[in-house]
């Protein structure tokens, strides 16, 4: 519950102040706390994402969380749902700012390597950091 309140606070604060960055500490707390995956689970982990593909990559991560991660991992605290909602907010904000998704072959999720949840999580945090620096 604390993480949900903290996440809501940061979302509200970023909207009110028109901040461009996403609170990575919230996403890190959500993904580290209660999600446990089988050791043989594999997920498309974002890698080598170009600036033109960031919004599409965020959408891929959101779909991966809402699909494969949700199916193959134990999420006793519904942290995945919180992460999906946060990513949806970031995607909507980027789309409103003119950074729409693209259908380019360069941006497809399936070109990413399949990796463990730990690598998926690390690469997702790197993608969010890229989002913060590039806008």
From TrEMBL:
It is found in: Secreted. Keywords: Cytokine, Disulfide bond, Secreted, Signal. One of its GO terms (cellular component) is extracellular space. GO terms for biological process: immune response. GO terms for molecular function: cytokine activity; cytokine receptor binding. Its main location: secreted. Belongs to the IL-15/IL-21 family. This is Interleukin. It comes from Gasterosteus aculeatus aculeatus (three-spined stickleback).
